[in-house]
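Researcher: Final request for today, and then I'll write up notes for the group meeting. The sequence and the SMILES for zinc ion follow.
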Amino acid sequence: MSQFFSRYATGFSRSLFFWLLWLPALANAQASYFYPGGGKFNPAIPTPEQFLGYPLGSYHTRYDQTVAYYKELDRLSDRATFEVIGQTYERRPIVVLTITSPANQARIEDIRKAHLQRGSTNTGDGEPLVIQIGANVHGNEPSGGESTLLSAYYLVASEGEETLNWLNQMVVNINPVLNPDGRDRFNNWANMHKGTPYVADPLDREHTEVWPGGRMNHYWFDPNRDWFLTVHPEGEAWVKFFHKWRPYVVVDHHEMGTNSTFYFDPGKPTSNNPIVPEGLYNNIYPRFGRYFAESMNKIGSMYFTKEVFDKLYPGYGSSYANFFGGAGFLFEQASSRGHLQETTTIPLTLAFTIRNQFQAALATVRASLAEKAELIKLRRDFYRITGEQAKKSPIKAYVFGEANDANRTNALVNLCLTHEVEVYELDNNISQGGKKFDKGKAYLVPIEQPNYLMVRSFFEKAIDYSDSLFYDASAWSVIHSFNLPYTELRAPFAKGTRVAVPKVAAPAQVEQSTYAYVIDWADYSAAKAVYHLQNHGAIVQTAFKPFSLSLGGNARSYSYGTIVIPVQQQKIAPDSLFRLVKETSQAAGIPVQAVGSSLALSGIDLGSNAVRTLKKPEVLMLVGQGVSAYEAGEVWHLLDTRVGMPITKIEWTNLGRANLNRYTTLVMVSGTYSLDKPIVDRIKAWVNAGGTLITFKTATEWAIKQGLTKEKLMAPDTAKNKKPNRVDYDNAANVEGVKAVNGAIFEMDLDITHPLGFGFSDRKVSMFRNNLTLLKPSESPYNTVGQHPANPLIGGYISKDNLKRVANSAALIVSGEGQGRMVLFAFNPNFRGIWYGTNKLFFNAILFGNNITVPSFENNEQEEKE
Ligand SMILES: [Zn+2]
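Model: Predicted protein-zinc ion complex:
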């Protein structure tokens, strides 16, 4: 018996030992709890318990301790190499431990290169198989992260024959905590509320985190969507590391409800992604499932497969590999959410959850090597099948780009590069279907390339699904979230140079002006430029009407929203302004033109009354229990990282203490706000005195129900409800699931002459909805800024009844209330940090909102009959 086992038995604290006696699941808690079957271990390698000073499961391991243990394994063993692959917002390192035999470690770079070669060719079959184990993308699902300490120890210290064979024939990369910021948020919560003895009552504070909880990353995003979107440093680091190794197998350890058991793949068969070759679903998942089942049977743990969890979205940790000829696996363990929690059977211990995850991880290693030939076949078939599909595709390439928005265009180019999708410069200007794409300002993505499935996932708007119950959004075509002009090439084409490095906008040097500077509002980073200028004391204006100017002898036209910075009408000297303008141009990566006259070639002159001075925004957002942390986090992230604007986040229960007069703008994202009437009255008075209230989704419904605005919701049942049919009980989930709107892409018609629509060149705008806030178009002809057309669906799943409800409803309304106004969004314009297109509407609401006056109109019409 190894030192680990004997230490484990004596290492239990007295209280822990006491309650263990009362738990049947752990009644035999002994040294061999985690490793039934035992084995021989290298005594020079400390067990997690020896290193940490407590038995796993009795404390939530702080992230710095996890990192320290991994470093120690690297220091003590020639089987392990520690690597930092990134850093979180809160400055925690994102780390990986690479484990293989010492002989393999000595030639690890050669192995990596040979392995990548093997991907689609017949070379290198003798090289070790590469797999990856990841955990804790959700910070408050600790059993996965804790289990990787055991997995790493086992692989580094075990002297067993099976383990030595694994190490000779495999490279195992372990990413112990994918979301370190969230994990530590949860660790602190669970540890600070831990009682001695443990309190298993589910209502105890230990088991009920306060808002926003540890699931998310620093900006309250769900990081398990970021494998595809790579909005955050975490996602960027994982994906970069993934492509460095392209593992055959990636497992992702998660947790689910306390009363559940354990889940492993195969997943829900009706929600497999239809573009991924089916060998993965029909062959690999069932094969691996047998090993997982065996590992759970052996320790008596209950489990389920083929239910609940889907494989559709390309950006889960358990699905990303599927799009690159690998196999992603999901483990979901019922959560003790704390150290010990009651269930409908016996209390669940953290140690029990760790053991299941650890056993599943070992089963993964075992299965991967046993099924090596099948994994190699899977990848070769993958490239052959997708290659044939690409060849047959009627679409040969996609071309995209917005000439006036280098930053938004670059962001999509760079996202393609992150996923190793090939992108090319244009060989020539292209005109097609009324759209023009200029060389240098637009890019081409050919269909025939190794990462054909990513190209489809990026650009295809409609994939046919065989299911209507979605765990998550059913549409993610990023070309629509960027709202970039694009076209499909169906004839042979010539391509220019391949884009090799990420695009960074490099604006031309700004020339000094004694008169004025102008900035095109179409550019995504114009919002950053405006706030930077305002924040450094410049007076900034915006043109409410278009104009054209002569610049260096050439005519150049400027659309609605163009930013004007006069030189003399400033509190700062012309030289200081020039320095500031130059600095702004560099910081935002945006061109600034110097002009010498107000006189326009056409349209308004720069001194027109239609050029209005912008008020610097002071933004307040309500957060706290009941508020959508995702939506609030998206606002926070957007303003922080893409505008450089501070935003005050106030608990809505504290709103009574705020002096609203110091803010220009109040943001209320979806949520349940139980604000008392006097507070609601204060918000109303503040809006009437000139404030701008911006609401999303259910906050929009709340504002309407509170009577803050005269705007209305659609009558509850526009689409006629059929008579209630009898439905078999067993079918309830299917019938009800169809009614949910989990996320699809819609079209809206946007008034691009309205300040909220400034910066858009096309009235047809793609937007995302995962909700049914149905705004009635305004009685005022000027207030409905965005409205869905009669056939609004672009891509994704929505039931026919719901589609009827969305058709012709308003998506965005501005309503004047006294001196102020309300901006009512029926949707979330900032979804997951990737909706670059509709972000502009939000920028407009923040930066121009205070300048919107709502025209009065005479309503001579009869009250509309319903
Ligand atoms: Zn999870």
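Model: The longest strand covers residues 80-87. Residues 138, 141, 254-255 surround zinc ion (CB under 6 Å).
Researcher: Thanks, that's everything.
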